[in-house]
Design a protein that fits this description.
single chain, disordered N terminus, L-arginine/glycine Amidinotransferase, Chain A, alpha/beta, 444 residues, 4-stranded mixed β-sheet, globular
Amino acid sequence: MKHKIKRVPFLLSLIILFFACGRKETKFPAETFYMPAEWETHEAVWLGWEKDSTQRFYPSIGKIITTLKPHVAVKIAFDNDSLKQTAITKLIELGVDTTGIKMYVMPGERYWIRDHGAAFLVNGKGELAVADFSWDSYGLPGFLDLKYEGNKDSINAAWNKNLVFRLKTGSVDSLMAVAEGAKIIKTQVIHEGGAIEVNGKGTLILCEATVFQRNPTLSRETIESEFKRVLGVSNIIWMKEGLADDPHHFFRRISGNYIGGGTGGHTDEFVRFANPTTILLAWVDEAEKDLDPISRMNYERMNENYEILQNAKDQDGKPFTIIKVPLPDLITQEVVVREALKKDGFTFDVKAESFIPSEAVQVGDTLLRVPAASYFNYLVTNGLVLLPSYTAMGSSKEKEEAVREIFEEQFPGRKIVFFEGLMQNWYGGGIHCSTQQQPKRITN
C-alpha cells in the first residue's frame, strides 16, 4: 500500500505534465511585433468621418460612439478642421456627449477607417507599431481594367481622377502611427484592414479573391512572407471566396437582376475568430439554399470554405472548432437605372455607366439592389460586442436570436448590443469596417 501511495503523486505529475505540454501555446519573443486578437483589451477605438450628404451614416455613427464611450476611449479622424467642427455640431445634435472624444485632423481620411487606417501591433516590451499596407482604393486598377476593357488612356484618366486625395488616404495609417508614437512597418502588399483576421497567437485568415485581385504581380510565396513579417504571424489559412453579396466594387451584377457592391471578399463579412481555437463561419442552411440566387451562391462558397477550415490547423498544429452562424434573410431594394443621379440627395437608384460592359444595364431597367448584410461585420471591444440587427428589415427573429445565443456563448462576460446599421451595408461595409481598435500596450 505504501508503494501505491508513493506512486500516485508521480503518476499525477506525469499526467499534469502531459496535458500541460498538450496545451502549450506559441509565445512571441518580447521584441516581436504582432497583431493581438480583437477580443484583447483595447486602449481606444478609432472612427473615421466624412461628408455624409447621400449615405445617411450619421445616426449609426452616433449610436456606435454612445455605446462605446462607457467602455473604451473613442478617437475620430477627419480630413480637415472644417469637417471636424461640422462633426462636433452634428454629434451634439444626435445627443452624443463629445466630452473626452479625441479628435485628429489627418488629410485623406475617409469613413471606412479600418480599411485604410492603422493596423495596430504590439510587442512584449510595451511598444506599439503599425502595419503599413499599400492602398489602391479596394483594387480599383483591376476594376477599371474591366470597366474600360483594357483601354490604357481611359484607365489612366479614371485612375488620375481624385488621385491626390487617394494618395493622402494611403498615408492615414502612417499619420495614426505618428499620433500614437508607434513604429511604422511598411510593406508593398496591397491590403485592407477588413480583410485581416487573426487569433492573436500566430494564425491569420486571408481570402484569395481579395488578396490576389489587389496583388496580381506578387507570388503567393512573397505575399505570405510579407504577411508573416509585418503581422507577426506564422500560419496562414486561405479562404477561396467571400459572400456573393460582397462583390468587387460598385456596381456589379451578381446574378440576373441582383446587383450590389463591396470589397470582393473581406473576411469581416464571413469568417472570424471567436477565440484562438474557434472560428465562426457564415452559413446558409440546406433548406434555404434555393430561395434565391444569392443564397445558392453563398451556400456553395461557404461549404467550400468549411471544408478548408475542417482541414486547417492552428499555429501549433491543432484543429479548430468551427461554428456555423446564419446569415440574415436576403434583403433587396428595387431600384431603377438612371442616366444621372441627383448630386446632393439620397437614392438607392444607380447609373448605367457604373457597370462594367460585360454586366451592362440599360437606362430604365428595374433591378434588385442587395446590401452587404452580415452578422460578421461586428466589433468586439472592452466588455462589448456590437452586432448589426436585421429584424426591422424583415429578417427572421428566430435566426437573430440564434445569433445572439452563439455570441453570448463565445464572448462570455461581454454585453451583446444589437443595433440597425443597414445604411453602411448598402455601401459595402458595416460596424467593423467603420471602426479600428487600438490595443492596449503590454509588457511580458
